[in-house]
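Changelog excerpt: complex records now keep ligands as SMILES alongside chain sequences, and the structure block spans every component. Example after the change:
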Amino acid sequence: MPNCLVCYKWTLDEQDIKIKSEDLSLDSSRAKGKISDFDRNAIEEAALLVEKLGGAVAALSYGTAAVKQSLKDVLSRGPEKSYWVADASAEQADATVTATVLAAAIRKIGPFDLILLGEGSSDLFNQQTAPRLAALLGLPCLSFVNKLEVEGDVVKATRKLDDSVEVVTVKTPVVISVLSEINKPRIPSLKQVLSAAKKPNQELTVADLGLTPEDLAPKAVRKSVKGFVMQRKNIIFKETAAAANVAKLKESLASLGLS
Amino acid sequence: MANENEDKFDAIVVGAGPAGSACAYTLAKAGRNVLLLERGNSAGSKNVSGGRLYTYALELVEEGLYQRAPLQRKIVREQIMMLGAESAMTVDYFNPAFGGNDAEKKAAQSYSVVRASLDEWFAGEAETAGAILASGQVVDGLIEENGKIVGIKVGEDEMRADLVVAADGVNSLLGQKAGLFPDASSHAVGVGVKETIELPDSVINARFGVTDAEGAARVAIGCTDGISGGAFMYTNKGSLSLGIVFNADQAGKQKRHIQDIFQDFKMHPAIQALIEGGTSVEYGAHLVPENGYDSIPKRLYRDGFLVVGDAAQFGINTGLIIRGMDLAIVSGLAAAKAALKTTSPADLGPEYMRQLDELLLMANQKAYRNFHHIFEINRIFHGYPELANDALQFLFTVDGKVPTPMLKGLLNTVRKHASYGQLAADGWKAFRAL
Ligand SMILES: Cc1cc2nc3c(=O)[nH]c(=O)nc-3n(C[C@H](O)[C@H](O)[C@H](O)COP(=O)(O)OP(=O)(O)OC[C@H]3O[C@@H](n4cnc5c(N)ncnc54)[C@H](O)[C@@H]3O)c2cc1C
């Protein structure tokens, strides 16, 4: 019966983020939070494993103060308990910082047989948190997993790579990052939503975890974020003869230095 | 939560619109164990665009509550527009008194609101007061025992409560399931298309002649392709809400799509000038109860079950004012008050009706009872707006030619659009409706 942990990120829903036309800055004032897409698959996979094999599943997240908003949602998706680290450093954290915080938390609340994460977060999609976490914990890491079977302490995972499919077996404990095709995350039922309100959650502070300001400082500091907008020229050529249109197009491209 | 039996609540409120949230908030504040269910992923997510909220309703729920609400601009300009083919006549009534009195901390009479944020806020207030809010939950059935409604169904899950409140909006599934009324028939409802267009506040202020905190509410006729109905436009912070409400019956018989008629409205030179340069951020269509008092179902309750808001067809539309949210809030409050006041299920319904009277909701509905007959005068939507524009064109035209004598010219204009007989008949109809 595996003792599982899922790590997830509380991100802004990218659909709600707007790009301001004046300066291409991002307006996230009306953006709602969500559990990062692939992490939802990780949570679902852990919940399915435990529903089938017994065992337990807990959830862990590191984020800004907003991470508290995620508790009801994550607990309605299967985990029996959630741990959360809320710290302003998460705003600037890179995968190294995130993995450092998660590893410190896992040392405190672990050990776990299976540690599941999404392949990448829906905002930054660095795909680095799982391997870095595994390295810090000294555990094997299986990434790109789209099928998972667990028997006793043996994990059999199918990894979908660029040019091949690899089936590997490994003994627990192990860190696994999953792809979105591994399952279809549930829409929590009313009973699951209501039971979430009664499940325990526990805050871990960076001080509890013995983390220093250096641990929480990213190597690369993000100075600004700007949106990308495709600028269309909106030129329509309306000559009757196709050749005339082509000539005009050529002229237009030349004037833009594109020929 | 002082609740032994996890599947039983004091009240389950279905729908986190203004009606449901007002009800859940009031019950939760009084210590009742309330579950508020919403099918959208968050409250307000199913309610596109904006509207105007008459503040008195929130004041009835709790004095000062409006100060916490995400209100947009206080409405100090009431504008009426009559559109001709290219021209437009606008009446602009400015009254700073409508903006309330800041020194005495008096609320403005009405504010523009954006539903997505208003609904989310109000549901959040209910949650803070102790209600449990579960969104993404579509209630698809009622549990009935011995002639009493004792709970609801969401897919496989059942949940029980002493009271179920149907606040599920204009085409109330729950009211139908409870056997209180049939499907909303097309002559009792209007169909609305609405859109939100973002514009910088400085542009909105300049175009509507308002300051940052103040706003304008505008209605327009002569833009519905002859269908009974009218347009509305509200100024928000950083956006405009605009739309048209059509008589659903007539719109259904029309060849043209109402979206196309709405598009024409936006392209009218007088409207285009107001929205130019803006970005459309939301677009949607929705039904609206329109027939007023006579469409309110005979029975709005059963044992253990109350119907509030649009679900109960509460609504007033005079062409100049559109009211629904305020009546929804008042009825949600009335339901909560009734539940707090009674202990026996048999007393609940009658007490709810009494509360609706006491809070003057029914009196308001009755006062406008015959008003919608005025919309049977088809020339209001096609004829008279053009007449008004032609008359003004006549009065303002100077081209060096010999002008037609004033009276004769005006009478000619009138006769072009309606006969004296038609005018008399319409006048009589309007007189009776008023
Ligand atoms: C174009 C247009 C313009 C309008 N302008 C104004 C205006 O300016 N001022 C004004 O006061 N009124 C206006 N109204 C009317 C106003 O929108 C309604 O009267 C008001 O929203 C009614 O509130 P309610 O809470 O009863 O219903 P709604 O606001 O419709 O809320 C019902 C809620 O129930 C949820 N729900 C429905 N079924 C279920 C289910 N089975 N399970 C779970 N949840 C469910 C819905 O998702 C929704 O959130 C306008 C209406 C339209 C269409």
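Residues 229-259 of chain A form one domain. Chain A is about 25% helix and 25% strand.
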